[in-house]
Design a protein that fits this description.
The chain is built from 20 helices and five strands. With 407 residues, it is of the alpha/beta class. α9 crosses α10 and α15 packs parallel to α17.
């Protein structure tokens, strides 16, 4: 493909470490990874963990070029064991140092990851895996122990502005044929949300929309970025980070933070049923009987979510988050659940006291089922108080302890 027809983000990939922007903690002057690359002495297989557009693929390609290695790129979404086998066979046949770059390595299942192990271990291939997910959860421990994990950070606004400036002046980019003022460069960087690929895509689309000989203004940038979305991986770590932030904000009665994190999930496309499910759980776990209406509000919002769907249900979700944040808090119900569960798992199947058992047959009555049971409406308060309702081993055990309600 002619270079002028290649996407801007592809054309602007750096050809050396000096052109690489960001991740100074890894490839800055004097940093161990930079030294290892220059000396062509990599510390075994590598896993790059970081958000989209932070330079994982670019850095892998630079490593391959600067270490004079064969570079084989695969996506774990579409590649399988047979594709890996072909790469291994080729590496053995030509005796050439080979880097297998496996993008989205977390998409490989355990069996596929296990298959890589012996070839990583004997050096047939040098594996560079890239993932947006926490490798502690997504990569098998055997492979993880044989790899060095490098954490890449989300690019800063300053990093993105530098990339934009380089693109506007570089021969690979626009060679000064396109003009963007400083304020609008900053706008593109903000809209890109830490993602270099997104920044360059916005710039490229904006250039195609420009009607005034290369002049790109705020209106054009906004139009170019209208399909940009917040980073929110519904199956990944950020999913759990944000729901945790919402839970803790409501627990701390921080209304504004609760609104913000709810809207982050809504804008990120999270399933509204998941959001309200977590809120219903919160209503019992962190509020309980300190405000019994909380559970009713949350379950009513569930009806609204199921009836309306997006985008109309957003107000119901935020309304619920506000109510839960403002409600009095008590975890007495949660503690009752946990302590009773602990006793059940510790003591097993304790017998139901005989007087509490039903006796639908004569045999059961003869065995003492129901004998001596005091029927509350026909008994005195003292008789009911003395009547045992717990197994003997747990007699007197208390699970629910009401406490001072707090905001």
């Amino acid at each position: 493909m002619p270079k002028e027809n290649q996407p801007l983000a592809y054309r602007m990939r750096p050809s050396n470490l000096n052109e690489f922007v960001g991740q100074e903690h890894l490839v800055g002057e004097g940093k161990p990874l930079r030294i290892a690359i220059k000396q062509k002495n990599l510390p075994g297989s590598i896993i790059f963990w970081g958000p989209p557009g932070c330079g994982k693929t670019t850095l892998a390609k630079l490593i391959s070029r600067l270490t004079e290695s064969e570079f084989v790129e695969m996506s774990a979404v579409s590649a399988g064991k047979e594709d890996v086998k072909k790469t291994i066979s080729r590496a053995r046949l030509f005796h050439k140092k080979t880097i297998l770059f496996l993008d989205e390595i977390h998409r490989f299942n355990k069996a596929q990851q296990d298959f890589l192990l012996p070839y990583v271990e004997d050096g047939t291939i040098l594996l560079i895996g890239a993932t947006t997910e926490n490798p502690s959860f997504e990569v098998i421990s055997a492979l993880l122990s044989r790899s060095r994990v490098y954490v890449l950070n989300r690019l800063t606004e300053e990093n993105l502005i530098e990339i934009i400036k380089n693109t506007l002046t570089s021969e690979k980019g626009f060679s000064k044929r396109v003009f963007v003022n400083e304020e609008d460069k900053k706008l593109i960087a903000q809209l890109a949300n830490g993602d270099a690929r997104s920044a360059l895509n916005i710039l490229e689309i904006a250039n195609s929309l420009s009607r005034e000989g290369g002049l790109i203004n705020k209106e054009i940038i906004s139009e170019a970025a209208q399909k940009s979305f917040l980073h929110y991986d519904k199956d990944g770590e950020e999913h759990y980070n944000i729901i945790s932030a919402l839970h803790k904000s409501m627990r701390d009665s921080d209304v504004d933070a609760s609104i913000y994190w709810t809207m982050r999930m809504i804008e990120g496309g999270e399933d509204p049923k998941y959001i309200i499910r977590r809120m219903i759980r919160f209503a019992s776990e962190d509020i309980g009987n300190a405000d019994p209406m909380a559970l009713q509000v949350a379950t009513a919002a569930k009806e609204a979510v199921e009836f309306l769907g997006y985008p109309e249900c957003d107000n119901a979700l935020v309304q619920t988050a506000i109510y839960l944040a403002k409600a009095k808090k008590s975890n007495a119900v949660y503690r009752a659940v946990e302590s009773s569960r602990e006793d059940i798992r510790r003591t097993g199947n304790l017998l139901v006291p005989l007087h509490l058992r039903n006796a639908p047959t004569q045999l059961m009555k003869d065995l003492g089922y129901g004998k001596g049971y005091k029927y509350a409406p026909n008994s005195t308060e003292e008789e009911i108080k003395k009547q045992k309702r717990m197994p003997d081993e747990l007699d007197g055990r208390k699970y629910y302890e009401e406490e001072n309600e707090k905001m």
